[in-house]
Amino acid sequence: MAKYGFTLLCEVHGPNELLDQAAKAEAAGFDFLVISDHYHPWLPEHDHSPFAWSVLGAVAAQTDHIQLATMVTCPFMRYHPAVIAQAAATIGVMSGGRFTLGLGAGERLNEHIVGGGWPSIIERHKMLVESAEAIRELWSGELTTYRGDYVTVEQARVYDVPAECPDMYVAVSGPDSIGAALEIGEGICAVTPEAWLVEQFVEGGGDAHRTWSQVALSWDRDRNHGLDLARERFRFGLPGWRVMAELPDPKAFDAATQLVTPDDMAHQVPAGSDPQTMIDGITKHTDAGFNHVAVLQIGDDLDGFLEAWQSEIRPKLA
To answer: pLDDT band at 185, cuts 50/70/90?
Structure first.
């Protein structure tokens, strides 16, 4: 049976509001919460970008049973993998083992800020694999030295580790990123309902139950308003990852998406309040084989969406 999560939309909501949303999502019966780990938001219309790890700590302390995950963290450049190993272990302890570490190869939008340039995607996949290996070794709780081609950890120890190491997954969009996930033996996540991603992962030896995805919804009692909000807040995703990974700041994303219309968004984001429209958008991901599906509510009426989720949407999902 599939599991369904709620996305904390950091670009639109501040940290205190996200904590309130996390509590409401747990009360509404969601299985897990995911949060992005960005330094910058995507678009000029976005007003927020809080530090994900601070929010996660507070969410871990105020929730009881809902699972938590990053979707996703780039563990190199802006961070060092030793820092992510410590941060993730701490959230694992604070949450009582409810945390999963989602990793990705990053976007220039967030990682260029430290002045280290922007490596090729081939290099970033190698850096991702080495980072994951180093993190796993540090989670042993033992004194660790790791030396790769890109990542070095010198005599480091993470003292507070959960009883069981957190699970991991890797953001994928093609064969190379799937290969990276298989190389380190972890799960995958995607934002498009493409069955071949799951199929290639499973054919390579991956676990079909460790497959995650995210679907954006713009639940609003007025469908046209919902599409307007989708265009305003979520048009950054239309160019695809080959473009999204390369643009440096919100102004660049704005320029790249100026011609996107609300009608364009209608093909990408289910909008309005019709339960079947929402269900159809979600089941595209489960039909593609994803076992964990996070829903991202773009619209402003969270309470209306959560009420619809509990009464009309979730009961009809497998």
So the answer is: confident
Could you please report the per-residue DSSP string of 57-108? HHHHHH-SS-EEEES-B--SSSS-HHHHHHHHHHHHHHTTS-EEEEE----H
Mean pLDDT of the chain: 97
Q: What is the CATH number of the domain that holds 304?
A: 3.20.20.30
Check if 107 is active-site.
yes
| Tokens 């799937």, residue located | 178
Element containing residue 303 per DSSP (H, E) = helix 302-308
- To the question of pTM greater than 0.85 for the whole model, the response is yes
Q: Which of 13, 38, 285, 292 is catalytic?
A: 38
The span from the CA of 264 to the CA of 278, in Å, is 17
Q: Say whether 192 sits in a helix, a strand or coil.
A: coil
Range of the domain at 177: 3-316
C-alpha distances out from residue 71 to 105, 164, 277, 292, Å: 12, 20, 25, 12
Residue of 26, 107, 130, 186 marked catalytic: 107
pLDDT (tens digit per residue) in 86-100: 999 999 999 999 999
Q: How many structural domains compose the chain?
A: 1
